[in-house]
TrEMBL record, chain A:
PANTHER family: INNER MEMBRANE ABC TRANSPORTER PERMEASE PROTEIN YCJP, MALTOSE TRANSPORT SYSTEM PERMEASE-RELATED. Residues 77-273 form the ABC transmembrane type-1 domain. It is found in: Cell membrane. InterPro entries: BP-dep_ABC_trans_perm, MetI-like, MetI-like_sf. PROSITE patterns: ABC_TM1. It comes from the Bacteria. Belongs to the binding-protein-dependent transport system permease family. Keywords: Cell membrane, Membrane, Transmembrane, Transmembrane helix, Transport. It is a multi-pass membrane protein. The chain crosses the membrane at residues 21-38, 76-100, 112-135, 155-174, 195-217, 251-273. This is Carbohydrate ABC transporter permease.
From TrEMBL, chain B:
Keywords: Signal. Gene3D superfamilies: Periplasmic binding protein-like II (3.40.190.10). It comes from the Bacteria. It holds the Pfam family SBP_bac_1. Residues 1-21 form the signal peptide. The keyword Plastid does not apply. PANTHER family: ARABINOSE-BINDING PROTEIN-RELATED (PTHR43649), DIACETYLCHITOBIOSE BINDING PROTEIN DASA (PTHR43649:SF12). InterPro entries: Bact_solute-bd_prot1, SBP. The keyword Signal applies. This is ABC transporter substrate-binding protein.
């Protein structure tokens, strides 16, 4: 209803101009590499590896056909989708509960919990690699559940690795939601969980979406663990895309084409979620 | 109550940690030996030899079928990309959970040998796969430290050669490919004009740099490790060797400054597209053809020496590059694994595989046929006469990283216009060597 | 009585799944990693970690011996990482907050622009970084094409991927990839500011700048505190970006600590020494984080919030 652009208190001209200039610069910074990806994906390899040109002199869609032959892109995409979605779903649910506890309750060991969990983010990931692999192998030997080389192991890894920051970010969001809201709900007869699910979660939708995007993208792009924990069958995109840089040649045009192809669904997902980010506007404004 | 909970958590953590740290679950305790619990299946990690992982699968699939028909053993193939191979092997070695048979870069042999992750090929084991005598001596020397049982068996071999552009040579009035570095520099200067350069180098790639450092070092009569395996990077001869190579760009200026950042085989592309007249590379044929260069457009010659009459230990103009095939110590199908190694190194299979991959065979019997290409004739001769393996010491990887990395920095300095003196080179190499000391 | 226990137990129950996962998948490997730093864990013992001899503090001593090349290299790498982190986080935050505030009001094309801004973050790291390495090539890259060929700013084409400029290249690439995240978090946070606050301020005659300073920025504080910390930790330990941009051997000017540790442990198979460096890093980051939390007051609230 109160669209600022049309309201009588529209921003002053100087602000609009500053906005135009700054946003244009940012858009150029962001868009140029994307444009180069697009234009390179439509060039024959010979042109891509030659001197840079803004506009392709020979347009071809061949790279888009070749990408499926050079590496099993479809399989990698499905693997990444499964791993990233599952890790995100689990991570967000667990983080919401944990963040609610941290944000709304006093309990002993709270500081210990937050500090310890956060400290895991300070240890270089590479040093987790071998111990975690050993751990998975041992779990496998003891229980018969093969975690190494499987998607399950990767999901477990990613959801755990995104948890600490997810919890921390959500605590930030939950803290910014007035406490009166859920206290009122509890007075109205909701239990603490009811207050969480009916009041706090809806009000924190933008934050939750942001955290979900963080989890998803972390799992989507992670290189190191995926390189050691996956095999031919379970390999994810982040590793699979490296297949276009072979022993003999870097297929730049195919890298760009494949990247665009696999990113379209993700960007589309972002666009859909954007609505929820905005939908939070009303939710957050609930008095 | 809460204290108890925290104590319990701490105890659990400690217990799990202790269990792992003592290696009880690693499954690779020293006493562990290979078994035959799973005689009908094998897992094989192959290295990426052809143009892509998928292409390799196509090459290997019919051969693995052939093996299955003969032995009834099904081979599960995974072609592991180079970028992840060493990390995968390390994870496998530390956990005991890996393939039955695997390819390794032959320069890793000594390191893996020391790790004990691979089955040592003692006399008896080697006899089971056909015996040492079947292999050429140079590739065989690249299977582990001298005096120890080899960690693996040679599978594919490669050597460096000098590739030159025939048309560019003709235009510049050069009749013969150079045989000494002085000639190469002189020819390079003739070729360097009008935006084209005499030589393309892969200056941003530490591994390539280290390979050249090794060869130049040999030609200067020096080694990067002494007999005891201690690094000797900054000996005057090694400093001179590294400087001579870097000078191709820095001082002689026969390589384009941009070469300093090449690390993705751009030098091959530059050579194939006529931007540079010469290239020092291992078996470049497939790549050159892929870049659209025709076989009659380039010539192949041995890598030059310092003097035309180089002999003895200075008579080295290539490392022994190549792939070894090894058996993982924890295999549960030892007999099958050895059968597979024997199969892959059999004369027939070697003929098939080396033809498809354009590599040399380390198996003597598979070298008897006439060379399939002029390239092969040269490479074969180099392998037989003047190729030596990189130092077979456990710290070899560090040599490649540190010395190759130092050369990358030197190239970058030179390309940015800084003058490279002997003192600069020595300082870099000294720093590299000091980082080796533990 | 029962109700009391239930009330007291609820937070623990809520934390339980997170706690269990963190303990098993995160803390145990970390403790192992710390234990490794006291061992002489070279390739000889890789198959049987328990057999590796205890090294006492040797690994640490070597790492902090700044007179020796190994220690000096670590110190250099540490300095590079600090400079990189400050610059990259600062820039990413600045761009993020600017864009988020500027796009708070609706205007034509806002949705499209927002989608564009988020796109770099939607690309797999490998793609984003390899694209930049493509743009930053000396001879055939876009950056030199513009700076050198078209604008003529430089005398000769610049090296971005080797030599000193590689630091700049690293910062730019990192910022390009991370600022959309800051933008995303802040955009989400801005939704929680009631529109009425602005309207009231406008009625009071407050200009845009005052509105930003007195309404927007204070309201963003809680999220900013977390965001900056998160960006800091990420960037400091970032492995993916330098690894894809430079490969296993980063140029000296861009030798980030994560790559340095990777080299010390994986390339050279000396996991004890790599772990020792990691533990030192952990200690440093703990101190920085503690100071940060004390200064921003978040820790206090976390303590009895």
């Amino acid at each position: 209803m109160a669209e600022a652009g049309t309201s009588p208190t529209a921003p002053p001209r100087s602000f609009i101009w500053t906005r135009r200039v700054l946003l244009t610069l940012l858009a150029l910074f962001t868009a140029t590499p994307l444009y180069v990806m697009l234009s390179s994906s439509l060039k024959p390899l010979r042109d891509v590896t030659g001197a840079f040109r803004w506009f392709p002199s020979h347009l071809t869609v061949q790279p888009y056909l070749d990408i499926w032959r050079t590496v099993p892109l479809g399989r990698y995409f499905v693997n990444s989708l499964i791993v990233a979605s599952a890790a995100t779903a689990c991570s967000v649910v667990i983080a919401v509960f944990a963040a609610y506890a941290v944000s709304r309750y006093r309990f002993r060991g709270k500081r210990l919990f937050t500090v310890t969990v956060l400290s895991t983010q300070m240890f270089p990931g590479i040093l987790f690699l071998l111990p975690l692999f050993l751990l998975f192998v041992n779990i496998g030997n003891a229980t018969g559940v093969a975690l190494y080389g499987s998607r399950g192991g990767l999901i477990l890894t990613y959801m755990t690795f995104t948890l600490p920051l997810s919890i921390w970010m959500l605590v930030g969001y939950f803290d910014s939601i007035p406490r009166d809201l859920d206290e009122a709900a509890q007075v109205d007869g909701c239990g603490p969980l009811g207050a969480l699910l009916r009041v706090v979660v809806p009000a924190a939708v933008p934050g939750i979406v942001a955290v979900a995007i963080y989890s998803f993208m972390t799992a989507w792009g992670e290189v190191l663990f995926a390189s050691v924990m996956t095999n031919d069958v379970t390999r994810t995109l982040a590793i699979g895309l490296q297949g276009y840089a072979t022993q003999t040649e870097v297929y730049w045009n195919q890298i760009m084409a494949a990247s665009l192809v696999v990113s379209v669904p993700v960007v589309a997902g972002f666009l859909l979620l954007q609505r929820y980010l905005v939908a939070g506007l009303t939710a957050g404004a609930v008095k | 109550m809460r204290r108890f909970r925290m104590a319990a958590a701490a105890a659990l953590t400690t217990a799990l940690t202790a269990a792992l740290a003592t290696g009880c679950g690693g499954g690779n305790a020293p006493g562990d030996t290979a078994g035959n619990g799973n005689p009908k299946e094998l897992t094989y990690w192959a290295t990426n030899q052809g143009s892509s992982v998928e292409a390799d699968k196509k090459v290997l699939a019919p051969e693995l079928k052939k093996f299955e028909r003969r032995t009834g053993i099904k081979v599960h193939l995974e072609v592991v990309p180079w970028a992840t191979l060493l990390d995968r092997i390390l994870a496998a070695a530390s956990s005991g959970q890996g393939p039955d048979v695997l390819n390794i870069g032959n320069t890793w042999s000594a390191s893996l040998q020391k790790s004990g992750a691979l089955l040592p090929f003692d006399g008896k084991t080697f006899a089971e796969v056909g015996g040492k005598e079947r292999f050429a001596s140079a590739p065989l020397a690249a299977t582990g430290a001298r005096g120890k049982d080899p960690a693996a068996v040679p599978l594919y071999s490669l050597t460096y050669a000098l590739y030159y552009n025939k048309a560019m040579f003709r235009e510049a009035g050069i009749e013969q490919p150079p045989t000494t570095w002085a000639e190469l520099v002189a020819d390079g200067k003739k070729l360097t004009r009008g935006g084209k350069y005499g030589l393309a180098v892969e200056g941003g790639n530490p591994v390539e740099n280290a390979h050249h450092a090794f060869v130049f070092g040999k030609q200067h009569g020096a080694d990067f490790f002494d007999a005891a395996g201690k690094p000797t990077f900054d000996r005057p001869a090694n400093v001179a060797a590294v400087k001579q190579y870097v000078d191709l760009l820095a001082n002689d200026r026969i390589a384009a400054p941009g070469n300093a950042e090449y690390a993705q085989n751009q030098s091959v592309r530059d050579f194939a597209t006529g931007k540079a007249g010469m290239l020092l590379w291992q078996a470049a044929r497939t790549s050159l053809l892929a870049h659209g260069m025709k076989p009659d457009e380039y010539g192949v010659a041995p890598v030059p020496f310092r003097s035309a009459d180089a002999s003895g230990r200075r008579n080295v103009n290539s490392m022994v590059a190549g792939i070894n095939i090894g058996v993982f110590k924890n295999t549960d199908n030892l007999d099958g694994a050895l059968k597979f190694v024997k199969f892959m190194t059999s004369t027939d299979e070697q003929n098939v595989l080396t033809t498809k991959y354009g590599s040399l065979s380390p198996v003597l019997a598979a070298q008897k046929h006439a060379p399939r290409t002029p390239d092969e004739a040269v490479l074969r001769e180099v392998l037989a006469k003047s190729a030596e393996p990189l130092p077979q010491v456990p710290d070899e990887a560090q040599f490649e990283t540190l010395v190759g990395g130092a050369m990358k920095e030197l190239f970058a300095d030179a390309a940015a216009g800084k003058k490279i003196t002997t003192a600069d080179v020595r300082a870099r190499l000294t720093a590299a060597q000091q980082q080796m000391q533990k | 009585m029962i109700a009391r226990i239930r009330r007291g137990g609820l937070p623990y129950l809520l934390l339980l799944p997170a706690l269990a996962l963190e303990l098993l998948i995160h803390l145990v490997p970390m403790v192992i990693g710390i234990a490794m730093s006291f061992k002489r864990l070279t390739q000889e013992y890789i198959g049987n970690w328990g057999a590796a001899p205890w090294a006492g503090l040797d690994n640490f001593r070597l790492a902090v011996d700044f007179d020796a090349p190994a220690g000096r290299a670590l110190l250099h790498s540490f300095a590079v990482t600090c400079a990189f982190t400050v610059l990259a986080v600062g820039l990413a935050w600045l761009l993020g907050v600017t864009a988020a505030i500027l796009m708070q009001d609706t205007f034509r094309g806002r949705g499209l622009l927002r989608a564009l801004f988020l796109t770099p973050y939607a690309l797999p790291v490998y793609t984003a970084v390899i694209t930049w390495s493509f743009l930053l090539q000396r001879d055939n890259g876009l950056v030199n094409h513009v700076l050198h060929d078209q604008l003529g700013i430089t005398d000769s084409p610049t090296f971005w991927l080797v030599g000193d400029n590689s630091f700049t290249a690293l910062v730019i690439t990192s910022v390009w990839r991370t600022w959309p995240f800051a933008f995303l978090m802040l955009t989400a946070a801005l939704q929680n500011i009631p529109r009425e606050s602005y309207e009231a301020a406008q009625l009071d005659g407050a200009g845009i700048r005052r509105q930003i300073r007195h309404i927007t920025l204070p309201a963003l504080r809680p999220v900013n505190q977390v965001l900056v910390l998160v960006l800091f930790l990420w960037t400091f330990n970032d492995f993916n970006v330098p690894y894809v941009l430079f490969g296993k051997a980063a140029p000296e000017a861009a030798d980030l600590i994560s790559i340095h540790i990777y080299q010390a442990s994986f390339e050279t198979w000396n996991f004890g020494s790599g772990s020792a460096m990691s533990v030192l890093l952990l200690l440093f980051l703990l101190v920085v984080t503690a100071v940060y939390l004390l200064v921003t007051g978040r820790g206090r609230r976390g303590g009895h919030g």
